[in-house]
Amino acid sequence: MKVNLTTKDGQARGKSRRAFLGSLSLALPAASLLLASACQRGGGQGDKFVIGFSQANKAEPWRTWMDSTLMKEAAKHPQLEIAYADAQQDNSKQVADVENFLRQRVDLLIISPNEAKPLTGIVKRVYDSGIPVIVLDRSIEGDSYTTFIGADNREIGRAAGEYAAQLLGGKGNVVEIKGLPGSTPAIDRNAGFREAVAAHPGIEIIADPVADWLRDKGREQAEAALRANEKIDLIYGHNDPMAMGAYLAATAMNRADGLKIIGIDGLPGTEGGAKAVLDGKLDATFLYPNCGTEAIETAMKILNKEQPPKKITPPTARITKENAAQFINE
Length: 330
Ligand code: FRU
Fold this sequence. Notes:
The protein has 330 residues and is of the alpha/beta class. 42% of the residues lie in helices and 15% in strands.
C-alpha cells in the first residue's frame, strides 16, 4: 500500500518538499539522482515514499560503505526517494536534521545516531508522531523506535577479547583504543571485551584512551601509549581506522615487532580492514555488517504495513589471515 503524499497531510506538498529536499546535503550520486528526479517531477504526484536518512558521519569509511549499500538497495524501488542528511559527527546538527524530516513529515526515518543520549529526545518525538523509525547500528536510550538493526556489539567485543587472549597465550599488556564514549557500540565493545579478558588474570589492560572512532586520533593515542609504556603486547581498536592508526604509530616508532593489533569492521576493498589483515598489518578484525540492505528491506515492509521484528541482528565473523581473502569482495 502506498501513501499518497499529496493528501496525507491535507495539502499539496510538492513545493515545501522540494525546498526541503534542496536544503539537505546529498550523499551520493544515487541520492542526487533520486532527488533530482523528484524535483523535476515537481512532487505532489503521489505514489512516492520519502525516507529521511540521517547519517552520523559520512566521512568515515564504514559509513561510506553503509551509504552505498543502502542507496543501491533503495535504487531497486522506483517508488522510494531518499532524503539524506549528514550530521558530520555533530549531535546538534543531527537533531536539527531530524527536526527537518519531522517538520516535512517524511514517510519513514532511518537514523544512525551519533551518540545515544543527545538523539534520544528527537527520535522519540518522531516515533511518537506516528512516523516509523528504523535505528541503525548505533542506538538511542530506551526503545522508542519501530525497529533496531545492527550487529551485537557486546558479542563482537567478547569475541575480540577471547581472540586477544588466544593471541597472547593468556598473558600480556593490552591497550584498548575506544570509540566515541556516548555511542552505544563503544560502550558495548568495551563491556564485551572486558568480560572476556576478565577470565584471564594474566592479561592487564594498561591504558584505554578514547579516539572517537577516528584514525588520526587513534594514531596519536597509540603513540602516547607506546611512549608511556615499554611493554605493550596487544592493541585493541574499537574500529579498524583506529587500529590502523595504532599500526602506523607502532611502525613509525619501530615498535611493531611482536605487537598484535586487532580491530573491528572488516570493510571489503583494497583499503579495507580485510585487506589490512591479509597484508599482516592487523592480526584480526571482526566483520561489522553495514545493514544498508536490511534497512531498506525493513523500510519497505513497514511502508507496506507489515510488522517487522523489533530487533534485527545480522551476523558477524572473525577475520584472520586464513579467511581474509574471502572478505575483500563485498
Ligand atoms: C563509523 C564507525 C565504524 C564503527 C561504527 C560504530 O562511524 O566508527 O567504524 O564500527 O561506526 O557505530
